[in-house]
Design brief:
Blueprint lengths: L1 E5 L6 H15 L4 E5 L10 E3 L10 E5 L12 H11 L6 H7 L10 E6 L17 E4 L3 H6 L5 E3 L17 E5 L8 H10 L4 E5 L5 H14 L4 E3 L6 H6 L3 E3 L9 H7 L3 E3 L13 H12 L2
Parallel strand pairs: 1-2, 1-4, 2-3, 4-5, 5-6, 6-7, 8-9, 8-11, 9-10, 11-12
């Protein structure tokens, strides 16, 4: 069985990517379950809570955003995630675990894949990446960023089915992504309003309330009636039907937003970032890569 286990399953881009991966695998005849500590993913795909996760012989396990240093930790994954959340910082257990389980690969019947959906938010060097059979990058630029010498493959995330919006509003901006300091949402709002956008709607999960109240709320007061917080919305088509332009200050080469804007005839404003061939891959091609790399 293919088991995807993540350190969080809140409604953010990486969770959506894992939900899509799980659904695509199941739709194509591969038995897959997504395990997460939160509730949002539970009705989005074949899923379970991390408390139900247990590695079994023959499993292919895709790990996301969990700092592992030993295969032994897979059998206590819920405790590991809870510990990380309590500390609210990256915890190095290497000195303890590696002393007892150096480069542990005791359970040879398990194939381990590390899915890297982030850069600065999840530095691979801080965990024992040697325990994984391969590292999955969603974009080739991540290889240079993480500077890890280890077997890997590059494969973009599956995309949603979207169509060109028939009736676009005029000068209605949208910001799509989680609300946190790193995404510089306040800068994007200012840019949209400088471009004479009549409204700016924030479509994203509120990860950092302190940042929101310190940086966003003052803008809401400064531009009354212009800025609206819609939160995370599952229906991507509904989002793109409601906006004429999408603004992004911190560009990520592997973000699907640019591709989705092209599909829905939405103007996309972003910083200059380079593109690669894998970004144009269709879902069938993406599945072929996973099929090969997982040995399905």
């Amino acid at each position: 069985m293919i088991k995807i286990v993540s350190g969080f399953s809140i409604p953010v881009g990486s969770t959506v990517a894992l939900v899509n991966l799980c659904n695509q695998l199941n739709d194509r005849g591969c038995h897959c379950i997504l395990y997460g500590p939160d509730n949002w993913h539970m009705d989005k795909c074949k899923s379970a809570k991390v408390s139900d996760f247990y590695p079994e012989n023959g499993d292919i396990i895709v790990v996301h955003n969990i700092n592992l240093f030993s295969v032994v930790e897979l059998y206590k994954i819920q405790d590991k995630i809870e510990e990380l959340r309590k500390k609210n910082r990256l915890i190095s257990l290497k000195s303890i675990l590696m002393k007892h389980f150096p480069h542990s690969r005791k359970h040879v019947g398990i194939k381990l894949i590390l899915s890297c959906q982030e850069n600065d938010l999840f530095p691979i060097r801080r965990l024992n990446y040697a325990m994984f059979d391969k590292i999955h990058y969603v974009h080739s630029s991540q290889i240079k960023y993480h500077k890890i010498v280890h077997p890997h493959f590059v494969c973009p995330n599956f995309s949603n089915h979207l169509i060109a919006s028939e009736h676009k509003p005029i000068r209605a901006a949208g910001l799509i992504g989680s609300i946190r300091q790193e995404n510089q949402v306040n800068v994007s709002i200012e840019k949209a309003l400088q471009d004479k956008m009549e409204t700016v709607t924030l479509y994203g999960y509120l990860i950092d309330p302190a940042y929101y109240y310190k940086q966003i709320v003052p803008l809401v007061k400064k531009y009354p009636g212009k800025i609206r917080f819609a939160g995370f919305i599952d229906d991507k088509q509904k989002i793109y039907d409601s906006v004429s332009d999408v603004y992004c200050t911190v560009g990520r080469a592997w973000s699907l937003v640019k591709k989705e804007c092209a599909l829905t005839n939405t103007r996309y404003h972003e910083p200059d970032i380079f593109t690669t061939e894998e970004e144009s891959m269709a879902n069938d091609q993406i599945f072929n890569v996973w099929e090969k790399e997982l040995g399905l």
